[in-house]
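Why this split exists: single-chain examples teach little about how molecules sit against one another. For that reason, every record in the complexes split bundles all components of an assembly together and asks for one structure covering all of them. Below is a record exactly as it appears in the raw files.
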Amino acid sequence: MKFSQLSGGRLGAGALVWAYGLLLAIPIYFLVVSSLKGNLDIFNDPFGLPKEWLFENYSEAWERAVLGKALVNSAFVSIAAEIITLALVIPASYGLARSRSRLSLLIERIFALGFLIPAFATLVPVLLLSIQLGLFQRREFLTMFMVASTLSLSVILLTQFMRTIPAELEESAMIDGLNRFRIMWHIYLPLSLPGVSMIVILNFLAYWNEFLFSLVLVGSNADNRTVQVALPTLIDQTKTEFGPLLAATVITLIPVYILYIVLNRRLENALTAGAVKG
Amino acid sequence: MNQDRKKMLFTSVASALVLTLVGCAGSGSPTSESSSSAGGDQSSESKVSEINVLSLYKKTGDVPEGAAINLAVDSFISSTGVSVNFTEAGENLGEEFEATVLAGQEADVVIVNLFDKSSGWLDAGATIAVNDLIAEWGLDSVIKESAIKEWTNSSGEVQGFPFQGFTWPVWYNMDLLAKAGITAAPQTMDQLIEATDALRAAGIGPMVVGGNDWSGNKLWLQFAQMFMDKTEAADVYSNGGFCASPNAMKGISEFVKARDAGVFVDGVEGYTADTMNAAYYAQDAAIMPAGSWAMSGAEPEIAAVTELGGLPVPSGAAYTKPTAYEGFTGVGFFITKKGAQKLSAVKDFILSFYQPDVIGKFVAEVNVVPATTNDISEYLAAASPLLGEAVSTMQTKVEFALMPDVYVGTHGDALTRASALAYGPGVSADQICKAADQAYN
């Protein structure tokens, strides 16, 4: 299509999309550029290129915050929580989506009540629970807490998604002799992959970025702490070196970005596959 | 900013709840265990193989205090054979410590400053008083009496071992002042306002301070006590009552007058200590109040043109010279109840920091003003020249105002939020004092 053939509306929409894209790119540019600068350069020329490229900020951040261990700990907590969450959410959602009983409606509403509890209100009870169970400062307890904290939203979202799958598919499969588990595994799960991908991305972001509970439940010990707890150890009360701090921030963003890239492609594939099957 | 406030609210609420529970957990036993009773267990102490330390100081990587800390820790390990589990906590050390106390898994020693949360630990029964230990361990002749006094609470209990002190002068860039036609650092408030006009006319920012954080809070409190003697200031800082004190109101009005005369750089309410340092080091502002910890960050060319002095005072003030702060609440050692069970090892660990070579390293490499009576002159040569000036010539130019941290106690964070309001344009003295008093409710 030639430029002259573009309508004013499409030009305007295109410009808006580009402007929005640039708006999103500005903080990322600031973060990456600042991670290669010293304090003076960051504050006095925030958007300029570094006067001196301080690549050593990355090695300094890696060493000072012991980021290697922290990344492993965060990966352990996030991946374990993802697996447990999916193992619980998929059958629960399938059951709630297909059942028409009053009990299932009640259970679904109880899950929805989970949204009403502010996160920080649960901090002290959760801390006391970890102490009572003898799991204080253990990554395993943090993992279980992460699962519990995202379960309600995940179940509600996936239940709604599974309700869009025609019930006739289940009836046909039952006539063909499939049991409930195989129907869920071979029919509902593949058709729900877009929803599952969405849940995986949302939950991973929540697990990876969680700070307060990770600090209180696991603490700052370098052997156990997550990346979000490791990052503030680069903050000094009186004079913070922002170059290494932002370099560490860039490092912690990389796994999240990779996951998004991988799942985003799968999410699109699943959407297409679902459309053909549907 | 919103995210920061949310996090601050989260951590404040959580910390308050946890500290309350810590206090409840401690009920039935004395609220603060005396050091002598703790020391009584010393003989029955079983063989200790490890001590746990939670620290604001860091020793991993290329940090200024790393070499000094490692010197102390390595010397402790080699002389005792006891290993050290050294946990470097960030700015959330307080929340983490309180959670571990609740779980009964706290560190034996906590290395942190005496401000806000830490000043409530002894009362909550999380740490022990060290009055007797200071003498028993021979530190009464090593630690300055004034430092011990600062660490003593209103019940007469010493909350920990003071280690790192500071001086907190006002820095004047004499080059920039000269460009504006000012040849001497201002001594009176009128001279400061004249200098402000001259600097602004020359396109130079006048005084920069972190209006949004603790650095601005301390400067505001310096203004507030201009007309109060130290006894009255201590009372107001301990209990609130800014609005009810005519002298405090005079000081706050002086702050408002200075702010409205443009003494502070434009947008000062958004500055933090880090952006303050950057503005001064980049010579965008000619004046800043900053402590000795900032001296290592000043490039030699900035240090060369900087003269240290005090905050000018108005006529009729309680001080005749410009005021600065000095204090010893920078960093110290708290002994927890768990640490009291390993007192022999804890003693050796803490004493390893008070060795002259370790203190010398802290002076030379971290620009620390030690809370000790040691002669540090030989180490000053390796430190920033500004530190040398701060502990020598500057001392005659200023009077030291009351350092508020000890008196403000656990109201510190709330008072910082109140003083942040004061830097906003158009906020009246009445509004400021009400906000400050609310911090005590």
